[in-house]
C-alpha cells in the first residue's frame, strides 16, 4: 500500500514509520507544522511541534530512506484545537486538546489530504491496537502497554477514519519501542516523551487562558454554607476536582479541604465543597461516536474510562429520547467534568465515545 506516515519527531512515530517500511509499504513521511512560531514553542521533554521536532523527524526519514515533507496546518490547528480549547474553558467545560487534535487534525485534515493525494492509509505512532474484520469493520483496542495506551484519545475517530489508519505499535511496550529505535540507528531512541499542552510554551495553562479571555473577577462559594469563601479572576482558571491554588480567603472552619465542585460561567461563580461531594455515579454525554460504525445493543454493559489516564469503572449505558448517552457507573468517580470524553470498552476493545455534558451524584 501507499501510506503516509505522520512523523512528529518523537521515537514512537519514527519506529511506527520504520515498521511500515519493513512491512513492504510505499511510505512517505510528513511532519505537521502546527505552530505559527515553532521557534517559540518549548523544546526537550516538555516539547512538541517545535523546530527541533521537525529536524528530528527529517533525520529519521533520512535513516529510513523515505521521502519527507512538512505540511503547514497551523491555521487549521488554531481554529480546530486552540480556539476550541479556549471556548470550552470559557463555557465552564474541561476539554482534551490531544483528543481534539487527533479528531480534527491528524485524522480529518491530514487523512482527507492524504486520500486526495492517492495514499491508502495514514500511519501514526499511537499506542493502540487496530484490526479489521473481513468485511472491513475496524476494531480499536488497548495497547499491550497499559501505561502508554492511547485508545482513549483515539476513541473519537469514526469507523471511516479508522479504516484508513495504521497503528503499528499496539503490540509492543514503550521500552521495546526505544530498544527497537536504538537498534535501527534512530537518534530519537532516547528522546524524552512530550508532556502537557504543546501550544502553551511555558506550561502555564491558566496564564495562557488569561491572555485569551482576560480577567473576569467573581466569587468562590462554599456548597454547604453558601458562604463566599474567596474570589477568583476568572472561572475558566478552575477545573472540577481541583484543590490546589484556590487561595480561599475565608475558609470554613471544619478542618476539611475544599475542592472545586461546579463552575458556572453565566454567574461567574465557582462552587467548592468537601471531597465526599465530588463522587458522581451518572454521566450524560452528547454526540456518541461508534468506532465499529454501528451502535451496540442497549442497555449496554461494560467498562468506561473518563480521563486519559484513569477514571475507569464498570457501567450500564442507555440512549435517552434526545439521543444522548446516559451512563450509570458501578462505583462513584471523582474529578469528572463536562467537556471530557467518556469511552466505552468491551474488555479491551473500544465500543465508542461521547462528550460529557452533565454529571450527577
UniProtKB/TrEMBL annotation:
Query: What are the catalytic residues?
Result: 101, 198
Q: Name one GO molecular function term.
A: ATP binding
Q: Could you tell me which PANTHER family the record lists for this protein? A: MITOCHONDRIAL TRNA-SPECIFIC 2-THIOURIDYLASE 1, TRNA 5-METHYLAMINOMETHYL-2-THIOURIDYLATE -METHYLTRANSFERASE
The reply on keyword RNA-binding is yes
Function text: Catalyzes the 2-thiolation of uridine at the wobble position (U34) of tRNA, leading to the formation of s(2)U34.
Q: Spell out the protein name for this chain.
A: tRNA-specific 2-thiouridylase MnmA
Give the Enzyme Commission number: 2.8.1.13
The family database entries (InterPro entries) matched by this protein are listed as: MnmA-like, MnmA-like_C, MnmA-like_central, MnmA-like_central_sf, Rossmann-like_a/b/a_fold
Q: Which family does it belong to?
A: Belongs to the MnmA/TRMU family.
Q: Where in the cell is it found?
A: Cytoplasm
Q: Which UniProt keywords apply?
A: ATP-binding, Cytoplasm, Disulfide bond, Nucleotide-binding, RNA-binding, Transferase, tRNA processing, tRNA-binding
Question: Does the keyword Zinc-finger belong to this entry?
Answer: no
What is the predominant subcellular site recorded for this chain?
cytoplasm
Where in this chain does the record put each tRNA-specific 2-thiouridylase MnmA-like C-terminal domain? Answer: 282-356
Chain positions of site Interaction with tRNA:
126, 340
| CDD domains documented for this protein | MnmA_TRMU-like (cd01998)
Chain segments carrying region Interaction with tRNA: 148-150
Q: Does the entry annotate any disulfide bonds, and if so which pairs?
A: 101-198
tRNA-specific 2-thiouridylase MnmA-like central domain residues are 208-273
> Which gene holds the coding sequence for this protein?
mnmA
Q: Which Pfam families match?
A: tRNA_Me_trans (PF03054), tRNA_Me_trans_C (PF20258), tRNA_Me_trans_M (PF20259)
Q: Name one GO cellular component term.
A: cytoplasm
Amino acid at each position: 500500500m501507499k501510506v503516509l506516515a505522520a512523523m512528529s519527531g518523537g521515537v514512537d512515530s519514527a519506529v511506527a514509520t520504520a515498521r511500515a517500511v519493513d512491512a513492504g509499504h510505499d511510505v512517505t513521511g510528513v511532519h505537521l507544522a502546527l505552530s505559527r512560531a515553532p521557534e517559540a514553542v518549548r523544546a526537550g521533554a516538555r516539547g512538541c511541534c517545535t523546530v527541533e521536532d521537525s529536524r528530528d523527524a527529517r533525520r529519521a526519514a533520512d535513516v529510513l530512506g523515505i521521502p519527507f515533507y512538512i505540511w503547514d496546518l497551523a491555521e487549521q490547528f488554531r481554529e480546530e484545537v486552540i480556539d476550541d480549547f479556549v471556548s470550552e474553558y470559557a463555557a465552564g467545560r474541561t476539554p482534551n486538546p490531544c483528543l481534539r487534535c487527533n479528531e480534527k487534525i491528524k485524522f480529518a485534515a491530514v487523512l482527507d489530504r492524504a486520500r486526495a493525494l492517492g495514499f491508502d492509509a495514514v500511519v501514526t505512532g499511537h499506542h493502540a491496537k487496530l484490526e479489521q474484520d473481513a468485511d472491513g469493520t475496524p476494531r480499536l483496542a488497548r495497547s499491550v502497554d497499559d501505561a502508554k495506551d492511547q485508545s482513549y484519545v483515539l476513541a473519537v475517530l469514526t469507523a471511516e477514519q479508522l479504516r484508513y489508519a495504521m497503528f503499528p505499535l499496539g503490540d509492543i511496550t514503550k521500552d521495546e519501542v526505544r530498544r527497537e529505535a536504538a537498534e535501527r540507528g534512530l537518534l530519537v531512541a532516547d528522546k524524552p516523551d512530550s508532556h502537557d499542552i504543546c501550544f502553551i510554551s511555558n506550561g502555564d495553562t491558566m496564564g495562557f487562558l488569561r491572555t485569551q479571555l482576560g480577567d473576569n473577577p467573581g466569587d468562590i462559594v462554599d456548597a454547604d454554607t453558601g458562604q463566599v469563601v474567596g474570589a477568583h479572576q476568572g472561572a475558566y482558571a478552575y477545573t472540577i476536582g481541583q484543590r490546589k491554588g484556590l487561595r480561599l480567603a475565608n475558609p470554613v472552619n471544619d478542618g476539611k479541604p475544599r475542592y472545586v465542585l461546579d463552575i458556572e460561567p453565566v454567574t461567574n461563580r465557582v462552587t467548592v465543597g468537601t471531597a465526599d461531594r465530588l463522587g458522581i455515579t451518572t454521566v450524560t454525554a452528547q454526540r456518541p461516536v461508534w468506532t465499529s460504525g454501528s451502535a451496540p445493543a442497549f442497555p449496554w454493559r461494560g467498562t468506561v474510562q473518563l480521563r486519559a489516564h484513569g477514571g475507569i469503572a464498570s457501567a450500564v449505558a442507555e440512549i435517552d429520547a434526545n439521543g444522548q448517552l446516559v451512563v450509570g457507573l458501578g462505583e462513584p468517580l471523582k474529578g469528572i467534568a463536562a467537556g471530557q470524553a467518556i469511552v466505552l470498552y468491551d474488555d479491551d476493545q473500544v465500543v465508542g465515545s461521547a462528550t460529557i455534558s452533565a454529571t450527577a451524584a
